[in-house]
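Handout, section 4.2: multi-component inputs.
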Amino acid sequence: AQSVAQPEDQVNVAEGNPLTVKCTYSVSGNPYLFWYVQYPNRGLQFLLKYITGDNLVKGSYGFEAEFNKSQTSFHLKKPSALVSDSALYFCAVRGPYGGSQGNLIFGKGTKLSVKP
Amino acid sequence: DAMVIQNPRYQVTQFGKPVTLSCSQTLNHNVMYWYQQKSSQAPKLLFHYYDKDFNNEADTPDNFQSRRPNTSFCFLDIRSPGLGDAAMYLCATSREGSGGYNEQFFGPGTRLTVL
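Output:
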């Protein structure tokens, strides 16, 4: 069965510093990995995904993520954090099936706090 | 702008009183999902429609039902809400087909309070 783990409940970063939000996964077959962000009382917003190809994926708002097959990781990164990046971040994995079987499984989320 | 719309944004109901949440989309996506999200937890998939085909998650209580009368609209019916059903309910859509693994687009959610 597919699963993702986000080992940190909260990450604290100073504005202007680089940030990393960690995610590891467990799947049978090729993984399809996603990052979403959720601001308070809002729905989730898609940031980026890895399906195949380059291990470094660039997404919205200056975020990027690196797929590492040997470490089964898909960490989210940003070179310079903004206070407005403060939010709840979810990593998600989708199984190797299409259609109705390939549903997203979310990690428990990591709260990112960026201080001025 | 193409989007996923949820109404109402906030819903208050009484214990045991049926309630319906609505979702509409202008993206013309063929798959629509309903998630339940409790405070600062991961969204939990309740069910989804792939076109007209309804797919229920194994652990979704019978108290939760859904209808999709057309491509654009999907409803979540809670037949007899309990206090434990208070949560944010998120609707999402995606375009799926052979070989694609597309991202889901989420609505802003409906926060349900059960008194």
